[in-house]
Amino acid sequence: MHARPLILCGLIALAAAGCRREEREHSARPIGEQGPGKVVLSELFPGGSPPPGGSHRRYEENAYHMNEGKRLYSWFNCVGCHAHGGGGIGPPLMDERWIYGGQPENIYASIVEGRPNGMPSFRGKIPDQQVWQLVAYVRSLSGQAPKDAAPSRDDHLSAKPSEQQTPAQPPRNSALPTASERRE
Amino acid sequence: MTAPVGPFAQSALHVAGPQAAHIERLWWLMFGVSAAVYALVMAALLIAILRRRRAAVEPEPRPDPAREQGLGRVVWAATGLTALTLLLLIAILRRRRAAVEPEPRPDPAREQGLGRVVWAATGLTALTLFLLIAASYLTDKGLDALAHDEEVSIEVTGQQWWWKVRYHGAPESRGFDTANEIHIPVGATVKLTLKSTDVIHSLWVPALHGKQDLIPGQDNVLYLRADRPGIYRGQCAEFCGFQHAKMALKVVAESREDFARWREAQLAPAPQPADAVQARGMAVFLSGPCVMCHRIAGTDAGGVTGPDLTHVASRRTLAAGEIPNNRGHLAAWIADPQGIKPGNHMPASNLDPADVRALVAYLESLR
Amino acid sequence: MSGHEDGPRDGRLDRLATERMLERTWATRPGLWGWFTTVDHKLIGWRYIVTAFVFFLLAGLGAVAMRLQLARPDSTLIGPDRYNQLFTMHGTTMMFLFAVPVMEAMAVTLVPLMVGTRNIAFPRLNAFSYWVYVFGGAMIWIAFMLNVGADTGWFSYVPLAGPEYSPGKRVDLWAQMITFTEVSALAVSVELIVTILKMRAPGMTLNRIPLFCWSMLVTSFMVMFAMPAVMLASSFLIMDRLVSTQFFNPAEGGSPLLWQHLFWFFGHPEVYIIFLPALGMVSSIVATFARRPVFGHMPMVLSLVATGFLGFGLWVHHMFATGLPQLGDAMFTAASMTIAIPSGIQIFCWIATLWDGRPVWRTPLLFVAGFIVIFVIGGLTGVMLAAVPLDLQVHDSYFVVAHFHYVLIGGAVFPLFGAVYYWFPKITGRLLSERLGRWNFWLFFIGFNVAFFPMHLLGLWGMPRRVYTYPGGLGWDLGNLIASGGTLLLVLGALVFLANVWNSLRHGAIARDNPWDASTLEWATGSPPPPYNFRHIPVVTGREPLWEERASLPVVTGLRIDIRELLTTSVVDAAPEVREPSPAPSIWPLLSAIALTGLFIGSVFTPWAVVWGAIPLSVALIGWFWPKGGAGRRDPLEE
Amino acid sequence: MTPRFVEDVSALPTTGFGTRSLVWWGTLAFIAIEAMAFVLAVAAYFYLAFAGGESRWPPMHDPPDLWASTLFTVVLLASLWPNLWTKRQGEAESRRGSRIGLVVMSLFGIVLTGIRVLEWGTLNCRWDDSAYGSITWVLLGLHTLHLVTDLGDTLVLTALMFTRHAHGRRFSDVAENALYWNFVVLAWLPLCVVIYLVPRWI
Fold first, then answer.
1. pLDDT tens-digit series, residues C334-375
2. pLDDT bucket at A183, cuts 50 / 70 / 90
3. pLDDT of res. B125
4. Residue numbers in B near C316 (CB within 8 A)
5. Whether the bond into C528 is cis, omega within 30 of 0
6. Which residues of B touch A24 (CB under 8 A)?
7. Could you give the number of structural domains in chain B?
8. Which of B338, B316, B278, B367 is nearest to B9 (CA)?
């Protein structure tokens, strides 16, 4: 009997979290409405700057968006260079090292603007919402997303533990990889 | 909004091929048997209810059998499903009688008589069921009788929420991809290999055959034949998510000549733009979001996750049977796919209206 | 043994003193505390029934919303996301939160009265099962209100319900709801089996058990052997989604069809779990109103048992379109059609009973007649669906929707409403209105047929099920409009029913002990029954005890009445064996249910909740098991 | 209705063993439910082995090592004797015998749980490697759940037997607890064959 109010409070808390996590918005805003106010073009971007409006939080806390990001990651062949996060031709995405910053708007910029040495620009090709979905998913690769919203295992061959089970690795900025590192 | 289709283009009772015809025959057999059984049961129930109506006026523990028989005949003659229900209604509304003493141990002789009737009915039920099992088994055999020497071999892959259709050729370079529309020659056996890359779907073209599931990790096969030319609608029959309702396809059964002509046309690469507008459309296609998912043979567009658009203009519908394929609907679909089919995987684009016009002109040229 | 020897016994005191003492011993304390701690099977049973009907109304409202959406082609009233949640909630609620629980609830209320005992076996487990059920149901509906409603259908086929295609917690909550309801259903079935086998009144030998109790016995056994399948399946699903097991992932050695096998191994018997209790209700009603015993008691019992066995041999007929080997298909066709025989026998026996009896047409019998008229159609279409070739056409079409509504509404809901009209006076002490009852029946009967008969045609004409909209021009428009119209009649019928209940509770005619002059033991006590059910445990001398002993009721004496004591008897002959103490009220079942709820819901978010949640659960269970008081007082039971 | 006294039951006992005990029937029913779960889990194992996506079984793993399970099985079977002895003590309503038996059985339970912990390390697979790993873990997990549950029961009952409640119905509880342990032992034998030997055979 005394547990009732407690349960109620718990439910309300869960509800608030649940709504953000479970929303399924499919009406993507059309392409062209570009994300963060200014897209930085320099090669070196300091990470750690607080997100401007926090609009990307919507994506990172939302299971559906992150799952969409996961689908697009494979549909748009990100796997081709970055593998399932382990890296290959491109840098790995599941560790704590970020050359161009590991904050959402950094990753957003990398996708939209492209980066030297192979990362093409997808400006005009990937609608804004899908870029944010990809950003959220990419961050979940290094465990940056809430565990109850991050994608679980694939229904295909599992190349790595699911994003849900990836331990969080807070992003550290690192300089451009040295030549020797790149060769590895 | 919806693509026009004829009435009963997706009906299991308006069949166009031997497989579906076998099943339709079984249906009518079962319907006939069931209707007869139902009429008998209802008649029995009705008599059970009606036969003692006089008892209320003058109690009669053992009614005269001859009269009972006569009453039975009358009621049997009056049998007919709706009529029976109506009679039931009247009979019940007219009955009013005081509660009577219960009879905890009914007369054994009467019980024996009832027992004989019940056993006879049970035996009859078993016999009927046996016949139906046999009929079902024979029909199943009949479905298998369609020789497995297919003239056309088609691979259908279910995807959320459209159908990828691949025609195998010999050599394989004579194969091609299309979507949401299957052309088959009339009178030819067609083999459909059914696959899925995401969730379970089910292919159902009632006019030609029953349904078969498309299951990830498992290939199912369906043989069918169309005996009449026509356009038959089919639809996904296994719940597959958001847009399960709008995952339709057309089967176009045409003469062998028409089919051969269609096949040759599909094999060709996409035609080059014929004018400046189309050329601009092609440029928009190649530089915009379209290329991320769609392929047009003969161009740089090589996306494989969406439908192949090499000959998109030759298809009758867009968005898996949802809208007719014409200029207006095509433009609407490009501008706002989420409005037409919420939740589907095609994102809205924010192209300049002139670009959309050019893009539509280009896509319309891909016959 | 010591300490049980002394104390007042029934039969040694006068009637009033006996009743006063029994009342003091068995009554539930007034107030909230009593409400939370009661172990009286009647209170819990009524609570169970009311809760199940609330879920019935919620799911029914969901159906109305769906029919509004489908009334016209290309309707945009409800979008796909909401619609998919709606039909999932409708199916899930109807099957897991209404149909099975309401049948078990009727049994929890009636079986102890019918077999002539003072309380159900393991009454604390009974209280626990109710709390678990209500928490599970509340969880899934609160989730639905918060837009976290499951949206993969009541069958939740993988991979659609798997981790990749159903992100978020929607399906996890659904799967956990299964766990809740299964725990409660399994607990109730154990209670019922033990009550029916061990707690029957002396003299109620095996062949004198009322048909309703037989049907509940068979049902309970079916629950015991069917529900583990779905618990296993839903556990696999949760583990796949939460800790990345690979049960249903074909790329890693799993199989999506494993889900279907496990689900339907439960799912088909489930239909009979819902249907068999209804058959028992029909038998009770027919016997009472035809004024004679049901014809063919033995064939009826054997049919129930046969249905119970055959029910486990049919699951593959839900999977004919998955491409299984043909020989297996043929076997399942034969098995599926064979089950029509025991069903047929029962229908024939009831008709024979009505034929030979002198039926009194009150509302309960009206519902039984409606049941036969509707259910036979459902049975016949079921035979059609068992034929593989025909199934390939109509499977997952509206034909199937029509079929199982004919079977489940015709076969279970109509008898259930008949049963409510029949036993309402026993439960509440007041009769429902006959006039409103008839309105209720005819609105239901006509509304049901108008709503569901056209669906047969829609299915044959190619309309698949589980679609949130459909295009016009395929010949489906009119049928859908008619079906939606029928739904409104059903709603009216439900309103009449609610009005009838509401009105009767306040102004209904007061019921005597045995208002219908029925033959089974529940009518031998007051309406409503006192907390101790019977002043003296009756002795049964025939199949229709109250008809055989019209002058006075033979009873036993010698049970203690100052403590909760009841009589257990031998399984076959019902010879008295033990004066069995029965547990007193306790708060621990509720606390255990809360602890279990915490564990279940927590485990949706982190697997470690299973470990941490086990601690409060263990504490609560130990509290439950730990005996109270000193010698001579009742000790709690282990299970 | 007017009652007519026909029989006096006041001489009946207030507790019974075996089929005369309600708890015995309840225990049996729960055993049946759990046995069904085991049967279905084993069926799922064979379904995955023969009809799942793997061509080899076990796929890319060695079969589980045998030493821990052999030790477990031997100790488990050895526990049957003290268990049956305890059951007889309960049925004889011997307070001392029941106490000794329950203490011994608690020790057996603790030792077996310890061996079980080691056993998890010998499976040579993880639950998320493949369907083989998943079903193997679930089979072992199901049995562990029963093992731990019964250990918990036994510990609570042992504690009870040393309190003032050690009389009357406690003895039938002792007998029913022993019945459940028999189930835990018997259920293990087929599971052991499936988990440890079947991968070597197919």
1. 888 888 889 989 999 999 888 888 888 899 999 999 999 999
2. very low
3. 85
4. none
5. yes
6. 343
7. 3
8. B316
**Could you give the CA distance from residue C627 to residue D16 in angstroms, rounded to a whole number?**
18
Quick one: B240 and B165 in the same domain? yes
Residue B193 maps to which CATH number? 2.60.40.420
In a domain, B199, yes or no: yes
Asked if residues C103 and C279 have their Cβ atoms less than 8 Å apart, the reply is no
* Partner-chain contact B347 A125, CB within 8 Å: no
pLDDT in tens, B61-112: 344 555 445 444 543 443 444 455 445 545 544 444 444 677 777 888 888 8
- Chain A neighbours (≥3 Cβ pairs under 8 A) are B, C, D
Is residue B128 included in any domain, yes or no?
no
Of C33, C148, C167, which is closest to A151 when you measure between CB atoms? C167
ipTM, 2 decimals?
Answer: 0.90
pTM exceeds 0.80 for this model: yes
B5 domain residue, yes or no = no
Same-domain pairing of B297 and B315: yes
Evaluate the omega torsion of the peptide bond into residue A151 and state whether it is cis, within 30 degrees of 0: no
Instruction: Assess whether B263 and B157 both reside in one domain.
Output: yes
Please, which residues have CB within 8 angstroms of residue C320's CB and are 6 or more apart in sequence?
C329, C332, C388, C391, C392, C395
**Closest-approach residue (CA) in chain D for A161:** D128
B/e letters for A86-124, b = 16+ CB within 10 Å, e = fewer, are: eeeeebebbbebbbbbbbbbbbbbbbbbebeeebeebeb
Put simply, whether D128 touches A (Cβ < 8 Å) is yes
Those chains having 3 or more beta-carbon pairs within 8 angstroms of chain D are: A, C
Same domain, B250 and B307: no
Sign of the torsion formed by the C-alpha atoms of C301, C302, C303 and C306: positive
Is C81 in contact with B102 (Cβ distance < 8 A)? no
Question: How far is it, in rounded angstroms, from Cα C581 to Cα C86?
Answer: 47
User: In terms of residue numbers, what domain contains B304?
Assistant: 276-364
Chain C interface includes A158 (CB < 8 A): yes
- B315 and B249 part of one domain: no
With CA atoms as reference, the chain A residue closest to B335 would be: A30
Quick one: closest CA in D to C541, which residue? D6
> Is B197 in the same domain as B245?
yes
Helix (H, G, I), strand (E, B) or coil at B121: helix
Q: Considering only CA atoms, which of C455, C346, C459 is closest in space to residue C406?
A: C455
Q: Into which CATH architecture does domain A56-153+161-184 fall? A: Orthogonal Bundle (1.10)
